[in-house]
Design a protein that fits this description.
single chain; about 150 residues; alpha+beta; five-stranded antiparallel beta sheet; 4 helices; about 20% strand; elongated
Length: about 150
């Protein structure tokens, strides 16, 4: 039985996910995650607001094609009237207008560079923390800054 399941997975068919198991709404299957890794890509969900999709495209992200995210189901395929065709998306917020998140991907090399740039910025901010410890359990305001009443 296990060999038959492995054979089906190897043929590229959608792997069976037992009904009733815990699975997050926007979670890709392990097989699809492995497929992204094999192709050297990292997937990421972007909310469609404040120009985030345009900024993501400018940063090197591209929309994931529906055949690379079958485990999300047919309801995740959003047909648009754009020249890029169908995209993988889900409604993530409701209200006056529905907020939709789109699944995009970027080469893992670029994703790692972006993550390192974020960590470097955090390190820089931590080094220039205006609330320096005085060594006596109190916080100061940094070199050259004092507080008076």
């Amino acid at each position: 039985m296990a060999n038959e399941r492995e054979k089906i997975r190897e043929e590229g068919k959608v792997a069976r996910v037992p009904f009733g198991t815990v699975r997050l709404k926007m979670q890709l299957s392990a097989l699809e995650q492995a497929s992204f890794a094999k192709r050297g890509m990292t997937p990421y969900w972007f909310n469609d607001r404040d120009g985030r999709l345009e900024r993501a495209k400018a940063a090197g992200y591209s929309f994931v094609s529906p055949e690379n995210a079958r485990s999300l189901g047919q309801s995740a395929i959003h047909g648009g009237n754009t020249d890029e065709g169908s995209k993988v998306s889900m409604i993530v917020g409701r209200g006056d207008s529905q907020l939709r998140a789109f699944l995009m991907e970027i080469p893992t090399k670029y994703w790692k560079e972006d993550q390192q740039a974020k960590f470097d910025r955090i390190d820089q901010l931590e080094q220039s923390d205006p609330f320096e410890q005085t060594g006596e359990g109190e916080f100061g305001y940094g070199t050259g800054v004092s507080r008076t009443h």
